[in-house]
Amino acid sequence: MEAAGKVIKCKAAVAWGPHKPLSIEEIEVAPPKAHEVRIKIVAAGICRSDDHFLSGALNEVKYPVILGHEGVGIVESVGEGVTDLKPGDKVIPLFIPQCRECRCCKNPNSNLCYKNDGKYIGLMADGTSRFTCRGKPVYNFVMTSTFTEYTVVDEIAVAKIDDNAPSDQVCLLGCGFSTGYGSAVKIAQVKPGTTCAVFGLGGVGLSVVIGCKTAGASRIIGVDLNSSKFAKAKELGATECVNPKDHNEPIEEVLAKMTNDGVDYSFECVGSTGVMVSALMSCHFGCGTCVIVGVSPSSTKVSFDPLLLLTGRTIKGAVFGGFKSKDEVPKLVSDLMANKYSVDGLITHRLPFDKINEGFRLLREGISIRTILEF
Ligand code: APR
Ligand code: ZN
Q1: 13 burial class (0-12, 13-18, 19+ CB within 10 angstroms)?
Q2: Which of 18, 31, 41, 76 has the least C-beta neighbours within 10 A?
Q3: Residue 163 has pLDDT above 60, yes or no
Q4: pLDDT confidence of residue 3
């Protein structure tokens, strides 16, 4: 508590612009204002979405920015009016907040919140930043910014979790795992005995595989252009894997032959509009459901024959697996601690925080599933 109310100087990985390595810098982190929480980050995952901004595939963020949105930490201090969190609490920052007051928050079937930062404003609710570096304000990233030793987050974007939760695993519940797992169990609501196809076997797709298996699917077909992903997918529950490059016909035709005309559920976990159409076409007519999980590059559009829907296929999409973040992340943590599922298989690398650029290299070269940065 000795730093409460004071500026904290600490290390952060600052992104000064796209196409540049992150720069480990000393930054100043201002104390939390009313309804804000300052968090000491303990562990953070590197997600493909962070890389989408660095690579320029998504181009909306303002620089300089502190990226990272998949982490876990300990509350250092709280601003005025924060009643449900206190210093010492273990927490997960939430890139989809839950204000519990807006139209979406009040709808039991939605997990969006009017107060999310989908427009990448990068500032706190009062329009200012809590981060400065070399005298310049630094933007936050989707209300979270986990690539820093300390961050400040709005109270609506923090889930309090079990103090005994394994930090080096539950950080993945802040994005990748929850996104994939929820897409299977909550958005698709995969039924026992069904057939699923998962396009893209990165951290998100493998989390879909874990969700389909937990839900009791009897066939889980992994699809990836990189066959080196297949062993891990099978370890986590895929019953078979297909590489589109090994076939002359389109992947949807390959899957149709394998599955008596199509799958019950397909999941797009690549972020490619072409794969989205293939995933929809892979669904069985009359009953198949396609879930869009991947984030496609800025300004791209999908085009498909509407007859695909008229003939009884459903297409859905969701962020964060449809989970209401503040309410459901603590339950996901309890389920992990009760061994209802495991995220061990997703963690391929662990690195000290200041080796973050190495972590991005492992992701870009297709070597890692998830690298956990330890602070
Ligand atoms: N068909 C099948 N698989 C493909 C294709 C394709 N056309 N193109 C790429 N892939 C595979 C890659 O080989 C890789 O294994 O998709 C996988 C994507 O995995 P990651 O890059 O590790 O991404 P991940 O973190 O799983 O995120 C996937 O979800 O949240 C979003 O922004 C994220 O859009 C991204 C997607
Ligand atoms: Zn809301």
Answers
A1: buried
A2: 18
A3: yes
A4: 85
Q: Which of 49, 77, 266, 325 is catalytic?
A: 49
Does residue 105 surpass a pLDDT of 60? yes
Active site annotation includes 171: no
Q: Are residues 202 and 298 in the same domain?
A: yes
**pLDDT above 90: residue 218:** yes
Per the annotation, the verdict on 35 as an active-site residue is no
Q: By residue range, what is the domain housing residue 314?
A: 180-320
| Whether the CB of 199 sits within 6 Å of ligand 1 | yes
> What is the three-class DSSP state of 286?
coil
Q: pLDDT tens for residues 331-347?
A: 999 999 999 999 999 99
Both 110 and 18 in one domain: the answer is: yes
Q: What is the mean pLDDT of the chain?
A: 96
Does residue 142 fall inside a structural domain? no
State the pLDDT at residue 1. 53
d(CA 186, CA 202): 20
Distance 225 CA to ligand 1 centre (A): 9
Average pLDDT score over residue span 317-334: 97
Tell me, yes or no, whether 2 lies in a domain: no
- 273 shares its domain with 191: yes
Ligand 1, residue 47: give the atom nearest the CA.
Answer: 25
Looking at the fold, whether 331 and 287 belong to one and the same domain comes out as no
Number of domains in the chain: 2
Query: Distance, CA 297 to ligand 1 centroid (Å)?
Result: 12
User: Which position among 10, 133, 175, 290 bears the catalytic label?
Assistant: 175
Same domain? 304 vs 332: no
Indicate which ligand has the atom closest to the C-alpha of 175: 1
Query: Is the Cα torsion angle 227, 229, 231, 236 positive or negative in sign?
Result: negative
Residue with tokens 């998504």: 58
Answer whether residue 27 shows pLDDT above 60.
yes
Q: Where are the alpha helices (DSSP H) in the chain?
A: 48-55, 103-106, 167-170, 176-182, 203-214, 230-236, 251-258, 273-281, 307-310, 325-337, 356-364
* Measured distance CA(50)–CA(66) in Å, rounded: 10
- Is the CB of 205 inside a 6 Å radius of any atom of ligand 1? yes
pLDDT digits (tens, 9 = 90+) for 49-80: 899 999 888 888 999 999 999 999 999 999 99
pTM for the model: 0.94
Q: What three-state secondary structure class fits 162?
A: coil
Token readout for 321 is 């697996």
